[in-house]
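Researcher: I'd like a candidate sequence for this fold, 219 residues long. If you have to choose between options at a position, lean toward the conservative one.
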């Protein structure tokens, strides 16, 4: 594997993103935002204008900064991974972050999904996601057209702060007529298919980084 030297260097750093398995409690204290760690969804989650689009603080500033750094160091961005509506992205599995990220989703995102959308039944306890990081910028792909996703519920994490790291951007929902632009570290949740057609508005300055998770039932 041509990524082994890269991964070995980051694994040796026991305080970084890839240190989850060596000290999970310390990792979560550093990288998971306190509101998410309370799991008090009725208290910490905001709904966007009664549109069943939800957002809450999930990750710390340190997580966002370290994540952007590790993705740019790895640097193997793809531009045609999706046949329809491709993004400039890479799978988290490419740099050994997928299992760690799925652990975070299982603890701090999937339970919120089940609670907020009133999803009952054992099958909703077996969610998993395709997780990838994407970036938009004035000198690269700056936007994404209006589309649906093959996803039960989509989770999107803003790694960058609008007004500081980039200008423009945001997720525009056509039917709901709302543009969602949460702060850095926040996750936003929306139904992935049929009801919430959306797109990424142009990033006009700087670079906007996001993590996207398309959830589905485990096979």
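Model: Candidate sequence:
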């Amino acid at each position: 594997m041509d990524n082994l030297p890269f991964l070995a260097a980051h694994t040796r750093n026991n305080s970084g993103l890839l240190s989850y398995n060596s000290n999970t409690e310390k990792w979560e204290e550093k990288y998971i935002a306190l509101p998410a760690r309370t799991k008090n969804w009725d208290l910490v989650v905001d709904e966007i204008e009664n549109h069943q689009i939800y957002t809450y603080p999930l990750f710390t500033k340190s997580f966002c900064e370290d994540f952007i750094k590790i993705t740019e160091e790895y640097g193997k961005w793809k531009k045609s991974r999706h046949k329809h509506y491709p993004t400039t992205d890479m799978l988290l599995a490419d740099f050994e972050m997928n299992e760690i990220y799925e652990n975070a989703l299982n603890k701090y995102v999937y339970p919120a999904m089940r609670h907020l959308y009133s999803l009952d039944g054992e099958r909703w306890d077996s969610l998993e996601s395709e997780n990838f990081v994407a970036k938009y910028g004035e000198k690269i792909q700056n936007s994404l057209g209006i589309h649906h996703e093959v996803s039960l519920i989509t989770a999107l994490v803003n790694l960058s702060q609008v007004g500081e790291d980039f200008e423009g951007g945001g997720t525009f929902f056509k039917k709901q007529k709302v543009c969602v632009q949460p702060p850095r570290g926040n996750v936003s949740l929306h139904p992935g298919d049929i009801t919430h057609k959306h797109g990424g508005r142009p990033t006009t300055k700087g670079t906007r980084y996001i993590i996207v998770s398309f959830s589905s039932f485990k096979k």
